[in-house]
Amino acid sequence: MLKGRLGKKRFGLEHYQIINIGLVIYDMVAVNAAFLLALWIRFDCSFKALEKYPEYFDPFKKFAPIYTVICIIVFVLCKMYKSVWRYVSFTELARCLEATAITFVIQIAGTTLFFMRMPITYYCLGIMLQFAFTLGIRFSYRIFLIFKRKQMYQIDGVTHRVMMIGAGEAAQLIMRDIHKNPNNPDQIVCVIDDNSNKWNRYIEGVPIVGGRDDILKNVEKYDIDRIYLAIPNARVVDKRDILNICSETNCEIKQLPSMQVMVGAEVGVNMMQNVSVEDLLGRETIRTDMKEVYDFIHDKVILVTGGGGSIGSELCRQISAHKPAQLIIFDIYENNAYDIQNELKSRYPDLNLVTLIGSVRDSRRINQVFEQYRPDVVYHAAAHKHVPLMEDSPCESIKNNVIGTYKTAYAAVVNGCKKFVLISTDKAVNPTNVMGASKRMCEMIIQSFDRKIKFGKLDDILPMFTHGDDDVRVYNKKERFVAEDNGSAVRVYNKKEQYVTDFVAVRFGNVLGSNGSVIPLFKKQIAAGGPVTVTHPDIIRYFMTIPEAVSLVMQAGVYAKGGEIFVLDMGSPMKIDTLARNLIKLSGFRPDEDIKIEYTGLRPGEKMYEEKLMDEEGLEKTPNELIHIGKPLDFDTDTFLMKLERLMESAYDNDPQIKRQVADIVTTYKIQE
């Protein structure tokens, strides 16, 4: 099979060997024809005139065999028979020049020393013709292949007419790569660059026709069907603006990755990547001080609840890269936990990894984990997050999000955990759904714990247990040291001990690619041929990528002093409708034509827009200019904890009116009937 692709042997020789034999024969004829032709031109293009001067013609004939042998030897030494001529380039040109210069000296010296000095025109014209003949045959093969390729693809109708955006070194390398590859159907027909000094000039024979404002008109003018963005060092904002203009066309769009990704790689057309929705968001990537994060994580025991989820699993990946003493993955869903466990074992074979199955709602289980492993840092990512589902099952949202957070936080305090980082959401701000309200209560829980620790009143916080069938028990202050829960010993707070857990919440918007993101839904709908469903044409959301969200969470753990709510500057929000249309275009379809968009109306508990902070909170700066601290809202901690006890009882009683209790606790929560 391989031999068939490389070509058949003839007379026991490889194909390239046959080509080289042909080239040797051609060169033997060419070097003599060049100087014969030069002599003929010197004597007025007349062989009769040449015969009248045998003193010039005889030295040529006598030196020709010697010169032929010398030329072939020089050509071999200059490796003129070693190249793959379909990819001939400047290297082959340089070799021909070198060989021509050497043989030129030999021609002059040989004829002068052994015969006579020939006319100057003979030497000069002869060597120029020799160079043209020997180089021409080699480049003609590539020119033939290029012409044949263009003709073939034009006949088949599959040539891609490409617009190149960028007239720098990267673009030039890609254009050369396309030109030298006969199997590439791309044809670069115009170039766009914002540098006006380059306009109306050429790069690799292709005209530079204008800047980004000229993209749309030139797509139409040159009948473009594919666009290559080749500016790897472009600012994120500039790349976003250019891509948004390109997305208005019906062209397929590809781009070079950033310089950081391409370090050490050879730039070529194979490096071009599809444009992702993240590229169209156009927000600068969050810069975290990885040394600070490394020092914070290194040699510590880390627990990630909900470690199999989209945020939790990325937390585990980044934590593993910082060499913790031990990483504990805790999740109720075994399949996700199993997947991330296998991934981390493969990537980090020396990682001390423990994967545990359990629920944060189970106080005995979560306390057992803390007692056994004594984590230094907890990232609490376990939560129910789907807004419409939680509207239909509000008690489950309270049990898992609120009570689960309380139990995990309590176990962290009594077992000497140093940092507790809560994963929150912008839906906690002025919530219109029970999921957002439950996350706001989670923030209030960690703020309450922080205040009690700072004021030395942790004995005001009670452990919560819910292990009986109909038995929901909150232990009172008399049961302070050891409590019995259905015969099982459970450790509770001992006021003789000192606890200094720093509690912090991290609040951010929608995460692209997460399990609850609209992106996977849109992709499935597009793959099925549509329609793509959007709740409202004007609904907007803040977006960020999973790695960005996780880097913020880890940085927050470094900055935490206790009680803060960290907020990411997520830039400008994006319309969900625009996001859907861009995704359709990136998939190669036209919105409303190939793929329909349907507006289904706002879902229960859904807001038109999300907020990052409550109006009263304000912002404080941190060392990272994209991370801010929201000042904690003032609320009565004791009243909140008392209401929380009754809320837990109602949740486990599956009270259908539980939303009203939630609204009484979270005063900014507006119930949508």
Can you describe what's shown?
The protein has three domains: 2-152, no CATH class; 159-275, 3-Layer(aba) Sandwich (Rossmann fold), CATH 3.40.50.720; 290-511 and 543-571 and 615-665, NAD(P)-binding Rossmann-like Domain (Rossmann fold, 3-Layer(aba) Sandwich), CATH 3.40.50.720. Helices cover 46% and strands 15% of the residues. The chain contains 22 helices and 26 strands. Strands 10-9-8-11-12-17-22-26-25 form a nine-stranded mixed beta sheet, sandwiched between helices. It is elongated and about 125 Å long.
Helix content: 40-55%
The CATH class label of the largest domain is Alpha Beta
Shape: elongated
CATH architecture grouping of the largest domain: 3-Layer(aba) Sandwich
The number of domains: 3
CATH topology-level name of the largest domain: Rossmann fold
Strand order of the largest sheet: 10-9-8-11-12-17-22-26-25
Fraction in beta strands: 15-25%
Provide the residue-averaged pLDDT. Answer: 79
